Amino acid sequence: MQEKLRRSLDNKMIGGVCAGIAEFFDLDETLVRLAAVFLMLITGIFPGIIFYVVAWVIMPPKE
User: Fold this and answer.
1) Could you report the per-residue pLDDT of 13-28, keeping only the tens digit for each?
2) Residue 9 CA from chain centroid, whole number
3) 31 is in which domain, residue-wise?
4) In whole angstroms, what is the distance from residue 63 CA to residue 35 CA?
5) Cα–Cα distance measured from residue 12 to residue 35, given in angstroms and rounded to the nearest whole number
6) Quick one: 56 exposed, middle or buried, by C-beta within 10 A (0-12, 13-18, 19+)?
7) How many domains does the chain have?
8) DSSP assignments along 9-54, one per residue
9) Contact 2, 20 (CB under 8 A)
């Protein structure tokens, strides 16, 4: 059975969204966080913050 996308409670900095995405795709958490910051700077800070908050609310925590 495929593992579901969940927020990380162990490696979180703010909400665990980037760490959860990194665990799901088997990537380094730092690279995912840097990519998120880069995308926020390119698209504007506000849309990135909205996406992060929505992902924080929608993604269940890892048990």
Assistant:
1) 899 999 999 999 999 9
2) 12
3) 1-63
4) 26
5) 16
6) middle
7) 1
8) SSS-SSSSHHHHHHHHHT--HHHHHHHHHHHHHHH-HHHHHHHHHH
9) no
Give the rounded percent of residues in the chain with a pLDDT score beyond 70. Answer: 97
Residue 9, pLDDT above cutoff 60: yes
The reported pTM is 0.87
Contact 45, 39 (CB under 8 A): no
Residues comprising the chain, all counted: 63
* 61 beta partners: 7
Distance CA 14, CA 8 (A): 10
Task: For residue 2, give the 3-state DSSP assignment.
Answer: coil
User: Does position 3 have pLDDT exceeding 90, yes or no?
Assistant: no
